[in-house]
Amino acid sequence: MSYTELHARSAFSFLRGSAQPSELATVAAHLDLPAVALCDRDGLYGTPRFTSAAAELGVRPIVGCELTLTDNTILPVLVENRRGYNNLCTLLSRAHLRTTKGQSAIAIDELPEFAEGLIALAGKGAPIPELIRIFGHGNVFVELQRHRLRGEERSIRQQVSVARKHRLPLLATNGVDYATAGGRPLLDVFNCLRHHTHLDAAGRLLSPNGERRLKSAAEMIALFHDLPEAIANTVTLAERLTFRLGELGYQFPCYQPPDNTTQEAFLRRVSYEGAHRRYGPKLPEKIPRQLEHELALIGKLGFAGYFLIVWDIVNFCRDENIMVQGRGSAANSAVCFCLGITAVDAVEHELLFERFLSEGRKSWPDIDLDLPSGDRRERVIQEVYRRYGRWGAAMTANVITYRGRSAAREIGKSLNFPESLIDRFSALFAHGDFPHTLELQAQMAQAGLPAEHPRAPTFAALYEKIRGLPRHLGQHSGGMIICQDKLGAIVPLENASMPNRSIAQWDKNDCADLGIIKVDLLGLGMMSVLQDTVELCAERGCPIDLAKIPKDDKPTYEAMCRADTIGVFQIESRAQMATLPRMKPACFYDVAIEVAIIRPGPIQGGLMHPYLARRCGEEPVSYIDDRLKPVLHRTLGVPLFQEQILQIAMVIADFTGSEAEELRRAISFHRSHERMEKVVVKLETKMREKGVEPEKRAQIISALQSFALYGFPESHAISFALLAYASAWLKVHRPAEFFAGLLNNQPMGFYSSDTLLKDAGRHGIRTRPVCVNVSEWRCTIEEEEHRTSNIEHRTSNAGELPSESFPTFDVRCSMFDVRCSNPPSVRLGLCVVQGLQQKEAEALLAQRALRPFTSIDDLKSRVSLPRDALRALAELGALNALSTHRRAALWEAERAPLPEDDLFAALQVREDSPLLPMTPSERVAADYRRTRMTTGPHPMALIRDQLPDVWRASDLEKARDGTTIRIAGAVICRQRPGTAKGFTFISLEDETGVANAILTPKVFERHRLTIVHEGFLSIIGRVQHRHGVTHIKADTVEGLACGPETTVASHDFH
Amino acid sequence: MFAALLLPDFALQAALRHEPALRARPIILLAEKAAKSPILQSTAAARALGIVPGLTATQAQSRCPSVLVKIRSPEAERTASRALLDTAFSASPFIEDTAPGLCTIECKGARLPDPRELSQNLRARLTALDLDAKIGIAPTADLALLAAQSTPDWRAVLCASELADLPIAQLDPSPAVLGVLGKWGIRTLGEFVGLGQRALVERLGAEAIPLFARATGRVTRPLRCLPPPEVFEESIEFEQEIETLEPLLFILRRFIDALALRLESVWLVAAELTLRLGLADGTETARTFKIPSPTRQIPVLFGMLETHLEKLTAAHPIVRLHLAATPAHGARQQFGLFESALRDPNQFYETLARLTALVGHDRVGVPILEPTHRPESFRLIPADFTAPPRAADAAALPLGLALHRFRPPIPANVQIDGRPTFLHTEKLRGPITAAHGPMLLSGDWWEGRAWSRAEWDVQIDGGPLCRIYEQEGAWALEGVYD
Asked: Which of A48, A180, A304, B338 is 20 to 30 A off residue B346, Cα-Cα?
């Protein structure tokens, strides 16, 4: 006799199951169970993962779900056919979409409408007559479970007698909560979390034994020896449940061409129209050939509608003046370039179309659209919802899993550890657990949980077990799925935490595996910056067209070679800046390589150093095999891009398009190790057959395996390089507008506003403080004349230097070619003021538009600002134009307003402020407190006198290599990249620039808390000059004892 | 004339009062049981390293890895407060318990004490009690406090202008007002007063009025005097270490005599006795005796202590003895018609105390079933013999046959052939004709105390229906069904 488990829950039941779906599938295969039904609570969250894992292991996956009813009872249902599946999804979508995130309740009255195709399992206490009426007599089974507990026989006898009375079949299940008995402790922990208690107090909330595991047929038959029909029915019922998740009935929406032609014909027409716009009336010979090749394949695969719909979204963006650029593998397509979806000329860059679309490809091609982050992207998302409806479109989910801190916190709580111990354990993660190097046992010991602690082994075991299990469902940053009909009947939808957003219960990989098409609408801060910069340029009367900026601009490449890239997209990180002087980019393709090379993939694969050595002429250019010369010549014989790996396989192992597609999937993110192994074996075999030497085979396979971790496609690098180049060009040629754009889009990128401001200062761009009579909501550009008039407006600045007259440093205008004689300034907007709401600022601006404010009393009488907002403005000098100095403004701002009907108000004598002006250091502290940046001196400049032995950042180039010196400054960046073997990189900013320090793992561990918690550091170490880059190799790290009383934002361990 | 006795960093002083050796080290004090709580107070050594109140413990550790963390102790603060008040009462009967770590004394009469003499005397007494005080003397209570805050040891002032350099925070304004004053750059009392009352009230509102009055020393307020203390405690520090019971009992008897006499004078009885023994290693052992029927009868009170001490073994000789009696009014109780009190409650409790001394503290009480799956798991709670017995809740009883349990369970030998087939115990023996099971239970897996057991209900041939179980490889007969 055989047995099928028809009621199992995975960890996707969120705190009600403790096994990954794949673990359930593995154990089921091991136990020779022919089929298993996954019935997670109120959703199909784990179903795709379970289906793919089970199908690979030869276990038939059955779809089911536990439904929560409004009376809080649970009704497990199983899906018989596609109708049932669509009904279940609709039911779940309806229940989730009408309530808040994480809630779902179905009224029993709703069930009849959606009962078709579903089988109900009637457990203990179920309203059987009602279920028979709803689902039909043949579709209700009485579910029996035995977990070897005292007292359960009584209820089983009752259930059997009810089943006999209603002539219903019995069905044995084990109500599985974990795959093996080893999953029971974690379930107990989840029970504690669910009931907000801990293991010592949970008592009877915990499992009485570990019997809710997957059991073999033999075990279940023995358990139900007295009721053999309950076992036999599992097999009979399983045979009835014919639905497969592959048959979702999903259809991508059709695009309706305006002239009633076919989608294919219309796509051809708009592609050629676009081609003429791009290349002129006479197309180069290669273009029609490539277009025809691509259009034929698109037509054959039936993807024409998809291209048109994406094109339509792009057109919407253009109409709405929203900057948009396609990225990802779509950049390999000439059709996408001609349609204006991408900005990369695939033909010119010889990009591999097969990386985007091939005949062997089963899934939809991937077109990602980069949009300006914030409101503009939200407008596009809402447009998609508007077009397809809340039931027709959804964001894909992002499964948030238990990771270092969250895992430790939840386990610690359930083990009843004091909060302080958990805090200490978490603090030791040093912001982000990816580059974590501390061994678990050492971390536990440092947190105050030594190995001898009676609960330490349990903590360690549970901590390892819980990591990677789903914790809750978030939403993907931009992935949207859309459907021809109701998407909610294909995948359950639910509300996101964000208003007006709904999400599907599956993540992007699940959707891709099941053929549901996704369009990524990704928000990119730099797109916003570029759009804002372009708009500011236009406002100033010197418009620019980013599509037409020269690609060979010498000053731009010179700035890159100097690593003058703070604020520049993708090439601003510490590691990028350390490579640029060595890489010396001289053309656009070099920028693409620079973007791609500082990645975990090339670094871990040991490809970065050979490439740079070859580029600098320190190593000869050689090829793994001469046949690969055409593939690798652009990257000096070193494979850097995914496309090259595919081409290598095609050249050296005769891989077909389909096999290359298989390889692409294997080396994409988050793919299974097993799939990778299969492809490696195939590649190895084919290379051997082709007579490739073992040494070369090993080299190729090593490159392939490093790409499996973090593969980076060439098309992607080129798309990013476009943004990197454009931002670098703007920084060089339109610095004021560019910095204003950056400041208006904070937080973004690698550095804080303050660091950007200081960098702007080093580039001769003056930054003006916030002023209620001049500033707009956003940061703006001011011409010199405006500044002068503003200064004139200040009448008596007794005792206090205006912020404008703070000294600026090292004005190196000579390196720029525009407007150096009279550079514009950036005026900080009201948006940077902490404590001033946008609506308050808008009220202020509306009044100012009528007439400027003449005094603080005038401002107070015309705009109703909260006391703290007024105080904030006064404190940071924004009211200086209406007063003598900041404290005088504070003195006036604090005075209670006189009653409106006070007849003698005009006679009141206004006394001068008795307060002294703020000192420079007080002004800087106030700036940081209220805007997190200062237009005044750097805090380090204020304490420079107290640091006679500290080297300034700008002087480091003069220090002799190997000498031991001391540097100090505000920490603007702390990084421990996973690829750097535990080395930490710290950037300290002072009034002259940025000094960089490298810390060995030993030094980091010795000073961990100081490094993580101190805002200003002093580092003693040896100077290293390498390839034009200066570093300090740190020996000692200390908090700066006389550090300024300010907090500077830093980029930490991201 | 008023004197303010101020214990700076009172909570930290209290926490370190009995550990003088630690005071020179970097130490921080955190709020009680509060996660991520900021540092409340820190020692001078810690402050020198930049560890100041407001930082978190982690930040403190980053600045000094060896910094010692202390948690605020309300008990230590209460004792220190009591010691401060006791000292103050030695100077004047007019004492105000102004705030934690602060008391104010009013000296009246024609012959006021010399300020220097008074301050030095009080400081010396407090130093003897391991407390470091600052003392301010002034014509008003609030000015005396400001004077105390302005000095490292003692200071006498006649008017507020002498305190112009005192930090404004010493006026204890609300955080909001302090924040505004900080933004104005106003840091001292003198600067504050210089702004003028009208301008201040216009900007800071009504709060400015009392602040200004205090800053100018114009506030005269009566003290909220404490009543003279009714202290019912006695203590002694032995010159010679005590190693035997006899001298200890002799002193204790004298303590009891004295306490009983003092209680009698105010018509009170003792409801509780607290005995503290200071040991030579600096530690202390304490025991509190609740007196079921409050009394001041000397034999009863002494009997309790004697019974306890007879069984007590101290690791070190005794150097200090302290006995405190918590007073109460004599019991008055009206019983119901069929209720009766224990004939001699104190005798009953003394018997219980003897039992406790014999079998151990954790082995006397009323058993309560633990809410766990582990069978027979219970804990003991202290018995409350005054509450009427509760009737058993019939609904809470398990359904089915009643089980007569053997406590402890009887070890058994069981033959197994797929299921139990033969049972052999000292009480029962015979082949098993029917068996139902196993019922599996397990738990407590998280602390090395994991257990699991398999229960069977078995029918002995010609015998009773029994429950047997196997746990950790051993079988036992748990009980027989009715």
From this structure: B338
